[in-house]
Amino acid sequence: MSQVYINKTATFYPNTAIANNEMEQYLGHIHGRPSKSKHIVLRNNGIEQRYYALNTQGEPTHTNAEITVQAIRNLFPNNTDFLTSLEFLSCGTTTPDQLLPSHAVMVHGLLPETSHIEVVCQSGSCCSGMHALKFAYLAIKSGEIQKAVSTGSERISKLLQSNTFEEEAQKLEELNQNPYVAFEKDFLRWMLSDGAGAFYLENKPNEHGISLRVEWIELFSFAHQQESCMYMGCEKMPDGTLKGYHEYSSKEIVEQSILSLKQDTKLLSLQIIELGFSGLKDILAKHAVSVDSISYLLPHMSSYFFQGKIYDILQKNDIGIPYEKWFTNLKHNGNMGAGSIYTMLHDLIETKPLKIGDTILLAVPESARFSYAFCLLTVC
Predict the structure, then answer these.
(1) How far apart are CA 192 and CA 47, in angstroms?
(2) What are 172-222's pLDDT values in tens digits?
(3) Fold for the domain defined by 5-208
């Protein structure tokens, strides 16, 4: 089988960075009231700035497809020739601009320089970007193609705006109830960011400059034993099952903010670290990788709250990695879901003196129904 190399990485962030004290200028107050949870959530997640595809009037400035295309074009910003020879496009996101057509074909539609290539779309949440990478990796490794682009992106900000929840808050007040929306909805308003990343993959390394050889990509799910933790377009029932938006009237969808993104924070804290990072020990053993040989760990984290928990579970499983080998851009870029691991790897390449033979471990947990992705890269 062919070797697979990430030969170029790129990112795109819409507009300028937004500090914590500016967030509600873009997202607004629900029912005219400041959030009760904002300061608590921000204190715990450690994020200091993020990006929104919005202007200060709350109007959208980019679609998800546009953000993704810009990241792809930034792979070779002064040369679009690579698009004419591109054979495969694989895109992952949590937040497509529409249910149909797929996010990936909408991205392809904004790349007229390409030909009638194979296009695949990976849905889900944080792991969807890694699923997109694996699909491209397998296509090259099998020998079917030689050149591919994979992407991870999010444009979640529009769903975080106060008008998404106004009808629900108004309904609560009419019923003489607390007009603040439930914590599982408000929580995510202060966690998420917009942006995109792209990888250019080939079956041979760069002639000049470094390449990253993809050694393996492992993905697994615990959905067979865990209920949903993060969900959108549905409501979680008392027994843990989901009731999809198709089962609600149009009035109920608006009044109950059914289309908003929600998080079961108690389940998140209990399971997200223990399940996936305990399994990493078996993956490293399967591939005969000594944890001491890992040069950099890139852990996708929604919050710095989980940093110590990840460290402790790795230590508990005898695969501890010292903090000096960790790299994250969460503080300055925010949590971009499917796009986070793409932007993290790009920033590592741009800021660290990578050497031939260095190894990079990518780790992506996904809380939707507890899926995980791990990937080992070697600098060559």
Answers:
(1) 10
(2) 666 566 655 667 788 889 999 999 999 999 999 999 999 999 999 999 999
(3) Peroxisomal Thiolase; Chain A, domain 1 (3.40.47)
Per-residue CA distances from 219 to 137, 274, 284, 327 (Å): 13, 16, 13, 21
3-state secondary structure of 71: helix
> Nearest CA to 36 among 161, 176, 261, 190?
190
In angstroms, the CA 44 to CA 1 distance is: 45
- Residue written as tokens 């990796």? 137
Q: Are 204 and 235 in contact (CB under 8 A)?
A: no
Residue 243 bridge partners (DSSP)? 235
Taking the model in full, what pTM does it have? 0.95
- Specify whether the CB–CB gap between 331 and 146 falls below 8 A: no
Say what percent of the chain tops pLDDT 70: 97
Model confidence over 133-177: pLDDT tens digits? 999 999 999 999 999 999 999 999 999 999 888 877 676 666 566
What tokens does 290 get?
């000594």
Q: So where are the chain's domains?
A: 5-208, 216-227+263-379
Helix extents (H) in the chain: 23-27, 38-45, 64-73, 81-84, 103-109, 128-141, 157-160, 166-174, 183-189, 250-255, 265-286, 307-316, 330-333, 340-351
CATH superfamily of 216-227+263-379: Thiolase/Chalcone synthase (3.40.47.10)
CB 191 within 8 A of CB 183: no
Contact partners, residue 260, CB within 8 Å, separation at least 6: 159, 164, 165, 185, 232
Q: What is the mean pLDDT of residues 83-111?
A: 97
Tens digits of residue pLDDT in 14-30: 999 999 999 999 999 98
Residues in the chain: 380
